[in-house]
Design a protein that fits this description.
Number of helices: 19
Distance between the termini: 60 Å
Helix content: 25-40%
Number of strands: 28
CATH topology of the largest domain: Rossmann fold
Length: about 600
């Protein structure tokens, strides 16, 4: 591959090196030369509509937007002349006059608004143009966020984020002139939208707070908050989080643009369900439903453990534990007859596979075909679903779906086999579609490990073997459970069927460490016979961050730390070890520390 050609540009008298194809703004930013912007965001496609980043290029009387203009080798650029300052100030006056920007009562006031910050930089303390005062609506029908058109400057950052990052194109711009508005789904509301995934990329991209998170309102200025970078543990993708906190509570959660995994994008789970969904915390131990001290609870458990025969003891663990907690629990395995980590049905075979597809997300960007087998990306791994959507929509990649639940991805698929057919005509069509594929990516989940799923995989591999044009597919195992790869690698035995595991041998003492599962472990009771089996055990211990029917059923319930109180690492679906950092003071004790103390 030929290295990009080096070029040299003189910007404000400074010699700046770059590569052919880079924009003037890219090269200026790389050399710490400031050019004001409003509609530009580095991770979005350039638009050049706000005209704040206009610059002068020698030899031309025409001003050009630096965010969308490739730099020419040997050119001379001026970024801050009197002419440019005057035009930028006039642009800001127009923006302030055409909508209802009432800064003193706006939650974005004093530091969080890009429009206001640009006005301060330009020395704009009033405008001479008449205010238009249009009557503009507000839509707060969405579950997590709303839009106030009075603050909108039509920079289209939200529209491009919706298209470039999530790939659903829920947002667009409609009408003309003073009636110009950002609209949802051909002019409906967020509450009625059939395409919005609630990923929040539009809110994170908005410069003025026209799009705003309902849970964040009036919690505090972001520029006065503490920020912590950590990893989302809602699924095995491991997206980077940038968490804003103030007075020991979360104010806002955004994606970390520097994350090597997600590059700033999040799904609904990581963006909102982590903090904007209220959950009842378990804040103190309970013995048979009654509040107790930690000392009393541990004393009760020591007596119950001592009473139980060793061969009638077991330990079940949620895959949301960190790698360090999993390793510590493995060291305690000899204290129990059986120790296992709960995984999704058919996921055990997925977890024990030694191969991991490194840089999977990067490879997905260059794919010309996606084959999905036994996964439900929109429901369980939203960022992977977004990557598939954007690559299919923007680059024309083919999409083939086998044995997956119905989802919006079906709209983009060339082949959709929810109930997989074994007919020769069906597989002839699949083989023909794959004949011209050169860079395929095959994502397979737990259901691909079922008898039908393995048959599909065998037929797909055979089809690729017949394809002499392209490369073998990049195989990407995608578990459903958060850290099942890390927990199994630490030495915990994967358990797919909890009822069978409990019923296999008699139990009189069973701790269940559900950790910070969002439902407090309630899903464990939805499995067949689990509730009745647990009711027969003399001492059931549940350690959880949130209250649930499972903690209510427990003989002893112990508080566990939530996702924002943990420290350690988790292993994502690519095999990366990613850091988990505490954001708030812990309100529960680490699972391994509790049992190390109890069994010492």
């Amino acid at each position: 591959m030929t290295a990009p050609k080096k070029i040299t540009v003189t910007i404000d008298g400074q010699q700046c090196e770059g590569t052919a194809g880079q924009t003037i703004l890219d090269i200026a930013s790389a050399h710490q030369i400031y050019i004001p912007t409003l509609c530009y965001l580095k991770h979005l496609s350039p638009w050049g509509g706000c005209r704040m980043c206009i610059v002068e290029v020698s030899g031309s009387n025409r001003l050009v937007p630096s965010c969308a203009t490739p730099a020419a080798d040997g050119s001379t650029v001026t970024t801050n002349s009197g002419r440019l300052q005057g035009l930028r100030k006039a642009t800001l006056e127009l923006l302030f006059s055409e909508r209802n920007h009432v800064c003193p009562i706006c939650p974005m006031n004093k530091g969080d608004c890009d429009l206001q910050n640009q006005a301060y930089r330009s020395g704009l303390d009033h405008i001479e143009l008449p205010y238009l005062y249009p009557a503009l609506p507000m839509d707060v029908s969405g579950r997590y966020f709303g839009i106030d058109h009075n603050r909108c400057i039509l920079c289209t950052r939200c529209v491009r984020a919706c298209e470039d990052m999530e790939g659903v194109h829920t947002l667009d711009v409609a009408y003309r002139g003073q009636r110009n508005l950002v609209i949802v789904d051909l002019n409906t509301t967020f509450g009625e939208s059939t395409t919005c995934t609630s990923c929040g990329a539009c809110v994170a991209s908005c410069p003025t707070g026209a799009l705003f998170d309902k849970s964040q309102a009036f919690r505090g200025k972001l520029n006065s908050c503490q920020t912590v970078k950590t990893t989302c543990t809602e699924c095995p993708v491991g997206c980077g989080l940038l968490v804003f906190t103030k007075e020991d509570r979360i104010v806002e959660v955004f994606g970390d643009l520097e994350s090597p995994v997600s590059h700033g994008h999040l799904c609904r789970k990581g963006r909102y369900e982590t903090w904007a969904e209220p959950k009842p915390r378990l804040t103190q131990p309970l013995i048979k439903g009654q509040p107790a001290t930690w000392e009393a609870a541990l004393q009760y458990l020591r007596a119950a453990y001592a009473k139980a025969p060793h061969w009638q003891t077991g330990l079940l663990v949620s895959p949301r534990v960190t790698n360090e907690t999993a390793a510590a629990l493995v060291k305690l395995a000899d204290k129990f007859e059986r120790v296992g980590v709960r995984v999704a049905p058919n996921e055990a075979a997925l977890c024990v596979q030694p191969e991991r597809a490194e840089e999977s997300l990067k490879r997905m960007e260059n794919a010309d075909a996606f084959i999905l087998v036994g996964v439900d990306l929109p429901r369980h791994q939203g960022v992977l679903a977004a990557k598939v959507r954007t690559t299919v929509r923007k680059h024309g990649a083919k999409l083939l779906i086998f044995g997956c639940p119905p989802s919006d991805l079906d709209h983009y698929a060339a082949v959709t086999g929810h109930a997989v057919s074994l007919e020769r005509a069906f597989w002839k069509k699949v083989s023909d579609l794959l004949l011209t594929v050169r860079h395929p990516v095959l994502l397979y989940g737990p259901e691909a490990m079922s008898p039908v799923g393995t048959t599909v995989l065998e037929k797909l591999i055979k089809a690729f073997e017949l394809n002499q044009v392209g490369q073998p597919p990049v195989l990407v195992p995608v578990p459903t459970s958060t850290n099942s790869f890390g927990a199994v690698a630490a030495g915990l035995e994967p358990v797919e069927d909890v009822a069978d595991w409990i019923a296999d041998k008699p139990l009189t003492f069973l701790p269940i460490l559900v950790g910070d599962e969002p439902d407090g472990g309630a899903r464990w009771l939805r499995d067949r016979q689990v509730k009745s089996l647990l009711e027969q055990i003399e001492c059931v211990v549940v350690q959880a961050a949130y209250r649930s029917p499972l903690t209510d059923l427990a003989t002893v319930a112990l508080p566990a730390p939530a996702w924002n109180e943990k420290a350690g690492t988790v292993t994502n679906f690519e095999g990366r070890e990613l850091p988990v950092r505490p954001v708030l003071p812990a309100r529960g004790r680490d699972e391994a520390q509790v049992w190390e103390e109890l069994l010492a």
